[in-house]
Amino acid sequence: MPEDKAPTIDITTGEVRNESVTKLYEKIDKAIDDVTDTDKMSFHEIDVALLRINHKLDQEKMRVFLQYIADEKLNSTNSTGIYK
User: Fold this and answer.
1) Which domain, by its residues, includes 36?
2) Tens-level pLDDT at each residue, the chain (84 residues)
3) Whole-model pTM over 0.85
4) DSSP states of the chain
5) Which of 11, 35, 58, 70 has the maximal Cβ count within 10 Å?
6) Helix 43-78 crosses helix 18-38 at what angle (to 10 degrees)?
7) Are 33 and 61 within one domain?
8) Which residues, at least 6 apart from 49, have a Cβ–Cβ distance to it below 8 Å?
């Protein structure tokens, strides 16, 4: 993660930063309005695009999860703790 970007969830409290979520929602909403007006996309086409976005988000979640597992495995291998 780049240094200049704050995470969406505050890891110290676990709270979601609503201003970031609202900002993303407004951008997506505007993009949907734009393609509806300019490209004359139907709701079905927009729904298919959103399904593809959800698929991409699922892929990213899996990638992050697998990276977390790999990091945990690496950290446990290098640890000299009694249970490691």
Assistant:
1) 1-40
2) 445 565 566 666 767 788 888 999 999 999 999 998 999 988 899 999 999 999 999 999 999 889 888 888 887 765 555 555
3) no
4) --TTS--SB-TTT--B-HHHHHHHHHHHHHHHHHHHHHS---HHHHHHHHHHHHHHHHHHHHHHHHHHHHHHHHHHHH---TT-
5) 35
6) 150
7) no
8) 41
Same domain, 11 and 46: no
Tell me the C-alpha distance between 35 and 74, whole Å.
Answer: 46
Nearest-angstrom CA–CA distance, 23 and 9:
14
d(CA 25, CA 62): 23
